[in-house]
Amino acid sequence: MQATKILVVDDEKHSRNGLQKALTPLGYDVYLAGNGKEAISLLKSEQPELLITDLRMPDINGIELIKEAKKIDDGLTIIMITAYGTVDTAVKAVKEGAFDYISKPINLEELELAVQRALITRNIARENIALKEQLNSRYGFENIIGESPKMKTVFETIKQAAPTQASILILGESGTGKELIANAIHFNSPRRNGPFIAVHCAALSESLLESELFGHEKGAFTGAHTRKPGRFERSAGGTLFLDEISEISLRIQVKLLRVLQEREFERVGGTDVIKTDARIVAATNANLENLVEENAFREDLFYRLKVVSIQVPPLRDRREDIPILVNKFIEEFSIANQRPVLGLSANALNILQSYSWPGNVRELRNTIESMIILSKTQELTEENIPEPINSSSSIKSFGLTFTPGIQLKDAEKHLILETLGSVKNNKTKAAKILGISRRTLHRKLNEYGIEKS
Q1: Side-chain half-sphere of 172: how many Cα atoms within 13 Å?
Q2: Residue 441 sits in a domain of what CATH number?
Q3: Average pLDDT of 121-130?
């Protein structure tokens, strides 16, 4: 492992040599400069992790050297050493970017601790930068793949809405990537350094969801042994993502509406009013307008949530993106599974593009992963495509035809029957394909006297 590089700058030879003798036994690689010009040259050529500089020098003083050093390496850690130390000088040095300030005569133990603290701080800063780069890479626009006109509209809306404080409602079927879009909104907003906290509302009971969102006081209910902050508190300064928002009860909807209107709430079992500045991004695969009509979702909450709405298109409505997605997933899973798969045959791609993909991008991703794991050649062919998809290559688009003069209710009844048949009577899938709620589908089944168990 390469030793940490430290550049010592002091016009007094015995001072810089003394620092070199003190630091070298500690495992550091120490470079010496007698003036500012030499220091600048070494900063460029050796790229040290730490700069220790005197304040008073004949050509360039320490403050000026800090400014120049920061131009070369903005992340450089700097310690100022001088016999002429004053509080004003220390403050000025820190303002210009110095990490610490030590006065002569130098206490070697103090110097060693200052160097250790400076390098630890630099390493933490580098790790944070690397983590942010990873997060930006994971949640940046480049991972929301698509070049179709509908996806370009989604990208443009994200770019315009992300920098604001507006609540955003993401609409789309399951598997379209709504949470990925929510992450992209957060990491492309001024709140990117704050927390991103997701709550999957459908996975929690009403009482548990209430406690998770708003927190609870000690003794609020059986098992509440301590006070617990809720997700609204924990997401302060960041973004709270409420997935499957359509699944929350009317009682919780009332409390959520208050938070959106007043920016305040109480913990369960508490009376203290707690302020929150968390930004709300919600998502659903249900038709909220239909739920509002059915009095299953509050109209005032609906409009509070959809200050900005983003409609994520299903994969069947952007088939031109399938080749791009397939190539991305082949690259990802061939590396992850150490399989030398290089591509997909033209016929196999035609089959994938003709399939309706009720599970959307998630289903396509899982399909490609399965094909790669079970493949024995470098090219995926139609033989690698799972049978349910392969056998439907004729495309389940129903091919419905209607005779002019047919009544609307008869056409709707026929469409519902064909849709149910295409998904083997799975009402949840049928409702999603038809763009209505399961409750609305049941109502129409009863209305048309369609007997489907």
Answers
A1: 30
A2: 1.10.10.60
A3: 71
